[in-house]
Design brief:
It comes from Aeromicrobium choanae. This is Lysophospholipase, alpha-beta hydrolase superfamily. It holds the Pfam family Hydrolase_4. Keywords: Hydrolase. With about 325 residues, this protein is an alpha/beta fold. It has one domain: 3-Layer(aba) Sandwich (Rossmann fold). Helix content is about 30%, strand content about 20%. The chain contains 9 helices and 9 strands. Helix 5 packs across helix 7. The chain is globular, with a radius of gyration of 18 Å.
Length: about 325
Amino acid sequence: MTAWTEDILGDPYERRTIDLGADPDGEGPITATLVRRRFDGTPRAALVYVHGFSDYFFQTELAEFYADRGYAFYSLDLRKCGRSLGDGHTPHFVSDLALYDQELNETLRIVRGEVPDVPVVLSAHSTGGLVLPLWLDRLNLEPGGTHGRGIAGLVLNSPWFDLQGAAWMRSVGTQAIRAFSKVRPKDRMRLPLAEAYGVSLYREHGGLWDYDLAWKPLAGFPVTYGWLTAVRRGHATLHRGLDIGVPSLVLRSHRSWFSFQHHEKTDTSDAVLDVRQIGRWAGCLGGDVTSLEVRNARHDVYLSNDEPRAQAYRLTGEWLERWIP
């Protein structure tokens, strides 16, 4: 464990490294990186954010939204992602999503130590929106459950709840991927180059956002057989039903629009996931689930154009006021 140092985002953002030891997937020493926005005074709550695939935390507007509401803000770059990506690592590769429990448990310990006696809200995007509920479901089986750990709610932004695309990919296709992953788990799948979503975001191509393309490539990192198999196992667990033990908010766009090249609809649709699947499986989180559409939102609703982005923040704020003490 290291001390807090200034983050690449500059003041008031700081980061510390979480040492995770040797990689269970055989890629040497691994770490995770916890980022915080320094908070003066006593916060009313804490928010911990987890990114998606081919992603990392750079959205300071999200942090400022929570800080303005009295929340201490933290964000976690998972192993082999963003700030935690090291030489010899296959970006984002894990053979089991449960391996993330190590850094998630340590993050929760750090946050509870720094801001004790306040509720902790968790938030995640896309693949992170699958990782967090699976972790919470396991955590809720332990003595005291999630509430005993101080967790009060979950905000999911276009979570990856099922495999998009043709129906056969969710049946025989998944079985074929699983079989291949047993032999060559880190081999890259041969998928078409799809830059539409990245182009819609990145400022140099007319988007609104700047970020490091080494950590968030326009077309995303290559998908490996072993990683996708881990995700599909996670989907199957979710579909059987979870009990995360806390109320949740699930936000998604009102439509999906898939295209390899940028199209005007890319800017007002989810260009990555099938929003119908998000709506279908949201109830599998268990408990009090608020599932809402944000019209004309992108895949990351908080990176949408001005009007849908404002709506996403408004809906989030209303939900927080209703559910978080």
